[in-house]
Amino acid sequence: MMSAKPPRSLFTYALVYLIFLYAPVILLPLFAFNDSAIIALPLSGFTLHWFGLLWETRALHEALYNSVLIAVITAIGSTTLGIFAARAAARYEFPGKRSILGFIMVPLVLPEIIIGVALIVVLIQLGMSLSAWTVIIGHVLICTPFSIAILQSAFNNMDRSLEEASLDLGENKLGTFFRVIVPLVTPGIISSLLISFTISLDEFIIAFFLTGTDVTLPVYIWGQLRFPARLPAIMALGFLMVTLSFLLLVAAEYFRRRANRLTGVRKNSNGGIF
Amino acid sequence: MTKQHEREPIINIQNVEKHYGSVTALDGVSIKIEAGEFFSLLGPSGCGKTTLLRIISGFDNPSVGTVFIGGADMTDVPPNERPTNMVFQSYAIFPHLNVADNVGYGLKKQKLPKEEIDRRVDDALKLVDLEGYGPRESHALSGGQRQRVALARALIMKPKVLLLDEPLSALDKKLRETMQSELRKLQRTVGITFVLVTHDQEEALTMSDRIAVMFDGRIAQIDSPEGLYRRPISRRVASFIGVMNFIPATVIENTNKILSLNIKSLGQLDIKTSSALKKSEVITVGIRPEMLTILYNKSDTSEYSFNASIENASYYGDMTYYEVFIEDTDIKATVSMRNTAGRPVLEIGSKARVGWGKDSITIL
Ligand SMILES: Nc1ncnc2c1ncn2[C@@H]1O[C@H](COP(=O)(O)OP(=O)(O)O)[C@@H](O)[C@H]1O
Ligand SMILES: [Mg+2]
């Protein structure tokens, strides 16, 4: 079927929308490279000074270390949970399957501030002190639905007869897992790792509630906003984070599509978050 | 000379039943398949063909009954240890492996030396006419090529039995017809027992040594293609295999192996039979469209004949299929005529005389 051309007004609307969405982000690099301590137009010249300043700030390095550590553990945790859930959902029928999967997805739409408040109450009741680990618990909670969505498409799209063909050709169950299932879902797993890593790295509200002394990068940025003189350096940091997140998401999408292609899905219609 | 011992069947399916909850997919199926046979399971969709094939291959277990392959009870033998290989309906080509790695998948498990695997993969690809395709990516293959890869991948394992689940149904008509004869030739070359599942009666007739016709999870008849076509045992089999005209008849007498029938509006005839039909029993006789002949000229003769009016004519180039009403009845019959030189296509509504012989009658 031919797709009809959209009306011109729709096109204009989309353009205005995109400008509105991205204009603030485009301001980031503008001031990150601007040779002035004041965030205002007109620009006064090009400099890499602010990036150099980032390099010298020790507190920032600690925040970065915390954030990366939290993001890595979160990515592994939510992806592992996602693998179990997706495999079970793809292969087994059990009572209440739909509602269970539905409930796992709920954190996708819950306001993060609610999750943050609820978690802090529960964790303190349990006698846990706030640390990087409490942030990880919160991040795994919000990342797992994304992991499941991505992995479900990888597992669901896998034709069951591929496993059977492997058994038919004399391979045993363990061999089939490593020679057929793993290669086919690996791109999905990588995609899930990248997405949850990115979400965790950028997440502020839950980290703000649950972090103790182990400040994460977004929480560090929040703290720095009180000092106008440090704003250009924060712009530089923001620019780096946006660029990194963007690259990670592109890589994740690449792997998700690769997973779909391997499992024989032509269009990127099944699951995923893009 | 002494008569040879009856050979042990390569596959012996004994009274197999399969139930899914309240659904009965197979109901008392018993089949013996001889080594080297091209055997087909033929039946409409949902009759249990795939279920039976999966039970032979070990992917499903029968609820009741036993499967023997090569004389051995398969009950506790998992699929990866059975001497069978399967060509899946979807072909199940591994998308992350190229053609050679797909074909060599099973040999790699056997830890054979690489040179031997390479040589046997080349041989297998040659066998299915895919010489030189080894390095190709599998997702770039056409439907026909995927099917050949699936065949090579299964045959390289030298199974006692090759199982094929509707292997041609995904191909277009031309390719399907080519593959039918190629598959048949391939089976003769390798000498392996083939068990083919199909819902296409033409496919089963042209390829098989023997066919099991299945309806609703039961075997209706097992016979050679010719036997099925000429001597169907029921109305259902008769109309599933080709076209059959059905006409009611009454038994007048059945003595000394001579059956006297009164076929409705066609008259009375005596045929040799060994059936035990009784006097005044009402039965159905069947006659194939090609056994009816339109007598174009007044001088044309036939053993028996009846008058008919042409209800419809379908022209197929080489053949014309007429639907006719037997005169003064509401019985419809199909007559097929070869379009030989000078033979006109009769007009709808015109009258014709149709000839037939009593040897072409099937009693159902
Ligand atoms: N896993 C299953 N669960 C429930 N019913 C099934 C299952 N597999 C097959 N059936 C039923 O068994 C019957 C036979 O199916 P199948 O063997 O696939 O038929 P065919 O291959 O002849 O089209 C059908 O009614 C089908 O719905
Ligand atoms: Mg089937």
Greatest interface by residues involved: A-B, 21 and 24 residues
CATH class of the largest domain in chain B: Alpha Beta
The helix content of chain B, as a percent range, equals 10-25%
Give the neighbour order of strands across the main sheet of chain B: 6-7-8-3-9-10
* Rg over alpha carbons of chain A: 22 Å
**For the CA atoms, what is the radius of gyration of chain B?**
25 Å
Helix and strand sequence of chain B:
EEEHEEEHHHHEHEHEEHHEEEEEEEEEE
Structure, described:
- The complex is a heterodimer of chains A (274) and B (364).
- With 274 residues, chain A is mostly helical.
- Chain A has one domain (49-262): MetI-like fold.
- Helices cover 73% and strands 0% of the residues of chain A.
- Chain A is built from eleven helices and no strands.
- In chain A, helix 6 (132-156) packs across helix 8 (173-202) and helix 8 (173-202) packs antiparallel against helix 11.
- Chain A is globular and about 70 Å long.
- With 364 residues, chain B is an alpha+beta fold.
- Chain B has three domains: 11-238, P-loop containing nucleotide triphosphate hydrolases (Rossmann fold, 3-Layer(aba) Sandwich), CATH 3.40.50; 244-285; 289-359, OB fold (Dihydrolipoamide Acetyltransferase, E2P) (Beta Barrel).
- In chain B, 23% of the residues lie in helices and 35% in strands.
- Chain B is built from nine helices and 20 strands.
- Chain B has helices at 49-57, 99-103, 105-109, 114-127, 143-155, 173-190, 201-207, 225-230, 235-240; strands spanning 11-20, 23-33, 38-42, 64-69, 72-73, 84-87, 161-165, 193-198, 210-215, 218-223, 245-255, 258-263, 267-272, 282-287, 293-295, 304-315, 319-326, 332-338, 351-356, 362-363.
- In chain B, the strands form four sheets. A six-stranded mixed beta sheet of chain B has the order 6-7-8-3-9-10, sandwiched between helices.
- In chain B, helix 4 packs across helix 5 (143-155).
- Chain B is globular.
- The two termini of chain B are 39 Å apart.
- The mean pLDDT of chain B is 91.
- The interface between A and B is medium-sized, with 21 and 24 residues.
- Adenosine-5'-diphosphate is lined by residues 20, 23, 25, 43, 45-51 of chain B.
